[in-house]
Amino acid sequence: MTEILIDHVVKDFEIDRRSVRAIDDISLTFPSGSFSALIGPSGCGKSTLLRLVADILAPTTGTIRVGGLPPGEARLRHEIGFVFQDASLLPWRTVLENIQLPLEVAGGPIGDGPRPENLIRLVGLSGFENAKPAQLSGGMQQRVSIARALTLRPKVLLLDEPFGALDEITRQRMNMELLRIWQETGTTAILVTHTIGEAVFMADRVHVLAAHPGRLVTSIEVDLPRPRELAMLQTPAFNHFENAVRAALFGDELKAVAGG
Ligand SMILES: Nc1ncnc2c1ncn2[C@@H]1O[C@H](COP(=O)(O)OP(=O)(O)OP(=O)(O)O)[C@@H](O)[C@H]1O
Ligand SMILES: [Mg+2]
């Protein structure tokens, strides 16, 4: 069971000898095995929040727990997988060698981690084991990076706009695949996205953030059945949740437009 707890977290950065508050007292709970989305304008602290959970950054004040552990400890136990906006693969390594990289860094297999061949199958890249990243499409590269993030069987999967650079059709396919993988692996997933429809389609709960300083506006429960199907995109229920997220994102701006 791996619940993620963010308790009154503040993160300040020093920029040009000025202190900038990137995260202003955010408290959030991500239930074990849930799929959550973070959405909000550029600079509202979404990436910072993921980096805090992954122990790439430390909070200025406040507490974070990953399955009851401080993030540093969870990281040492290989419980956190991270997928970045760009696939960030090593260009001189093949697909298989990129996926195996975390094993090498960790100094060998951890427990009963999944075999690289199975991961390649899981992300639909069978037959491309020996291809180099440059020989793959952007979506295929991102799938390699998802497989790499899953190599050490993390209990937590952090995804920072993993499909931001892809066209809408490919993106929707990748999202369906991501949901399938998430359900198969039982991880606690947090997805950062700029797209309202994507947040609603993927998540059990959408957390809406605002910028300067980065803070939580509201959290919206998405009460749509699983597995999520493409046909849901056109239902009134889906539309209802999209509108709720949009209203939270735009706040008074939206009211002004509607009224005027
Ligand atoms: N390493 C850093 N050093 C200094 N300031 C930083 C650093 N990382 C982020 N910030 C600041 O923190 C704030 C939040 O940045 P963050 O990258 O988390 O935003 P974001 O929500 O991910 O935005 P985007 O949607 O554009 O990716 C910004 O004001 C940014 O300038
Ligand atoms: Mg970001």
TrEMBL record:
Show the stretches that span the lipid bilayer. none
Entry GO MF terms: ATP binding
Superkingdom assignment:
Bacteria
Is the keyword Nucleotide-binding assigned to this protein? Answer: yes
UniProt KW keywords: ATP-binding, Nucleotide-binding, Transport
Cite the CDD domains for this sequence. Answer: ABC_NrtD_SsuB_transporters
Q: One of this protein's Pfam families, by short name?
A: ABC_tran
- Occurrences of domain ABC transporter (ranges): 4-236
Q: Which InterPro entries match?
A: AAA+_ATPase, ABC_transporter-like_ATP-bd, ABC_transporter-like_CS, ABC_transporter_ATP-bind, P-loop_NTPase
Q: Which family does it belong to?
A: Belongs to the ABC transporter superfamily.
Recorded protein name is: NitT/TauT family transport system ATP-binding protein
User: Which organism was this protein described from?
Assistant: Kaistia geumhonensis
